[in-house]
Write a structure and sequence with these properties.
This protein is mostly helical and 497 residues long. The chain is 73% helix and 3% strand.
Length: 497
C-alpha cells in the first residue's frame, strides 16, 4: 500500500536519476559545459521538489508526514517506508539546497571527469535524503552505507596529494562503526517480533542490560559520523584532502547524519540507557568543545582549522541532545542547520582563495582585503557567525543549548559558555592573519575579487545565516511538536522497577 503523493521519493530519486544520466552521457570533457548545465538542472529540480515539504508541513502534529509505504521484501517484512517529522524535514531541505551550491562551486574548478564529479554529488544528495526520510531499519541502513561511496570517490579521485589515504581512513572509520549498528538492527528485528519499522522499535520493551548494549552499538555508528571525540581523527584528514565541494557536503550534511541518528534511534529506542550514560555523552561533548577548540588554535592550514571548528560546534549539538529538555534539543537542531550554512560557507571561502593561489596555508596570505574587498566582507560575516556573534545563525543554537544546559547544571553551562571564547579566538585570529594588514606578497597583490558566480553562492549563504540569526522562529516552530513528543517518550521509562 502506498500513502501520500510521493514527494519524499522525488527528493531521493530525482537527483539520483540526474546523476545516473550524467554518468551515461559523460566521459568526454569536451562537452563539459552541457554536463554542468544538466547537473545544475538536476540539482535545482531536486531542491524544487523538496520545497512542498516545507510549505505543506503541519506544525501542530508530531506524526510522520508525507508518508510512503509499500512492501519491498515481504518475506522478511522489509518495506519501502518513508516519512518526515519536524526533526528530519529541515535536513532534507538543507541537503537539497547545499547540492545546488556545490554544483555551482565546482563549475569552473573541475576540468577533468566533470560528469563523474557532478554525478557523485547528485547521487550523494539523493542517498542523504533517503537517510533522513527512511522509516524502515534496512532501508535506513542501506542509505546510511551507500552514501559513503560517492563521498569516498569525491575525496579519492578529486582530492589533494594524500587523497587516497584520507578516503580510505574516512571509509574504514565510518564502515566499522556501522557494522555494530547492523547487529543492533537485527537484534531489534527479532525483539520486535519480526519488524524493521523504526517507529515500532520505539515501543519495544527492553531490559536495561539490552539497552546499554544497543546504546554502545548505535553510539559507535553515530559518534564516528558526528564525529565525537575521540573518534574524530578521520575528519581533518578528509577535509584537508577533499575538493571544496566535498568539504562543503561533508561539513554541511554528512556530519548531521550521526547527530540525527541519536535522535531517531538512541533516545527513543533506549531511553533508560540514554539517561544512564548521559554523563558520558555530556563529558565527551564538553571535551570536544574545549580540547578541539584549543587544537584549532594551533592549525596552520585553513581547512584543518575549520574542520576542527566543526568538531567543536557539533559538541554543542550532542550536549544539547543529552540534557533532555526542549531548549537543549531544539538548540542542537538549530545549531546543526546553522553549522550547515556557516561551515559550508567558510569552506567555500577557503576554496575561493585556493582556486587563485593554490595554497591553504594561513602564512601564505595577508592583506587580502586590499585586493578582494567583496570577498573579505562575506568572509567576515561567516567568521563572525562561526564565532557566535548575536544576529547570526551561529549565536542562536549555541545560546539555546547553553540556556538548556543551565537548567540542568550551572557548571556544565559555564564550561560550554566559556569555551565560546576559543571559537572566537581561532576564527578571528585566522581571519585577521589572512584578510587584514598590508599585502603580504606579490601573489596576494595579484588576486582578483569574486566573480558573479562566487558572489551568488556566498550571497545565498549570507542571507540564510542572517535570516536564521535574526528570525529563527519559522525553524523552531517546525520542531516543537516532534521534540516535545520525543521528550515525553524518553521521560516515560519502558522499565518498571
Amino acid at each position: 500500500m502506498l500513502e501520500g503523493i510521493g514527494i519524499l521519493s522525488l527528493t531521493i530519486w530525482v537527483p539520483i536519476v540526474a546523476g545516473l544520466l550524467l554518468l551515461a552521457l559523460g566521459g568526454d570533457d569536451r562537452r563539459a559545459d552541457g554536463i554542468r548545465a544538466l547537473a545544475l538542472i538536476g540539482a535545482v529540480l531536486g531542491f524544487l521538489v523538496a520545497i512542498p515539504l516545507w510549505t505543506g508541513f503541519d506544525k501542530t502534529t508530531h506524526a510522520m508526514q508525507f508518508v510512503e509505504r509499500m512492501a519491498w521484501v515481504p518475506a522478511f517484512n522489509i518495506h519501502y517506508h518513508l516519512g518526515v517529522d519536524g526533526i528530519s524535514m529541515p535536513f532534507v531541505l538543507l541537503n537539497s539546497f547545499t547540492t545546488v551550491l556545490v554544483v555551482l562551486a565546482g563549475w569552473v574548478v573541475i576540468r577533468e571527469k566533470v560528469a563523474q564529479y557532478m554525478a557523485a554529488f547528485l547521487i550523494q544528495s539523493g542517498l542523504l535524503n533517503g537517510v533522513f526520510a527512511a522509516l524502515d531499519g534496512v532501508l535506513f541502513y542501506i542509505f546510511f552505507e551507500a552514501m559513503l561511496i560517492p563521498l569516498y570517490l569525491i575525496i579519492g579521485v578529486w582530492g589533494g596529494p594524500n587523497r587516497v589515504y584520507a578516503a580510505i581512513k574516512f571509509f574504514l572509520y565510518t564502515l566499522l562503526g556501522s557494522l555494530l549498528m547492523l547487529v543492533a538492527v537485527l537484534y531489534l528485528y527479532f525483539e520486535s517480533g519480526g519488524s524493521f519499522d523504526i517507529l515500532a522499535w520505539h515501543r519495544v520493551p527492553l531490559t536495561l542490560a539490552a539497552q546499554l548494549l544497543l546504546f554502545v552499538a548505535f553510539f559507535f555508528a553515530f559518534a564516528v559520523k558526528v564525529p565525537m571525540w575521540p573518534v574524530h581523527t578521520w575528519l581533518p584528514d578528509a577535509h584537508t584532502e577533499a575538493p571544496t565541494g566535498g568539504s562543503v557536503v561533508l561539513a554541511a550534511i554528512t556530519l548531521k547524519v550521526g547527530a540525527y541518528g541519536f535522535l531517531r534511534f538512541v533516545l527513543p529506542i533506549v531511553p533508560d540507557a540514554s539517561h544512564e550514560l548521559a554523563w558520558l555523552m555530556v563529558a565527551l561533548s564538553l571535551v570536544a568543545i574545549v580540547y578541539i577548540g584549543l587544537v584549532a588554535l594551533v592549525q596552520a592550514d585553513m581547512k584543518r582549522l575549520i574542520a576542527y571548528s566543526s568538531i567543536a560546534h557539533m559538541g554543542f549539538v550532542t550536549l544539547g541532545f543529552f540534557i533532555f529538555n526542549p531548549l537543549g534539543i531544539e538548540g542542537g537542531l538549530v545549531q546543526m542547520i546553522s553549522h550547515g550554512f556557516v561551515s559550508g560557507a567558510l569552506f567555500l571561502c577557503v576554496g575561493v582563495m585556493y582556486d587563485r593561489l593554490h595554497s591553504r596555508q594561513i602564512a601564505d596570505y595577508g592583506g587580502v582585503v586590499n585586493t578582494m574587498p567583496k570577498f573579505a566582507a562575506f568572509m567576515m560575516l561567516f567568521a563572525m557567525a562561526n564565532a557566535g556573534l548575536p544576529g547570526t545563525s551561529g549565536f542562536i543554537g549555541e545560546f539555546m543549548v547553553i540556556l538548556g544546559t543551565m537548567q540542568v547544571s550551572f557548571w556544565w553551562a559555564l564550561a560550554a559558555g566559556l569555551t565560546l571564547i576559543f571559537g572566537a579566538a581561532y576564527t578571528l585570529w585566522m581571519y585577521k592573519r589572512v584578510i587584514f594588514g598590508p599585502v603580504a606578497n606579490p601573489q596576494v597583490a595579484a588576486l582578483k575579487d569574486i566573480d558573479g558566480r562566487e558572489f551568488l553562492i556566498l550571497a545565498l549563504l549570507a542571507v540564510c545565516v542572517l535570516a536564521l540569526g535574526v528570525y529563527p522562529l519559522p525553524l523552531t516552530e517546525v520542531m516543537h511538536a516532534s521534540v516535545n513528543h520525543l521528550l515525553e517518550h524518553v521521560a516515560h521509562s519502558k522499565l518498571s522497577y
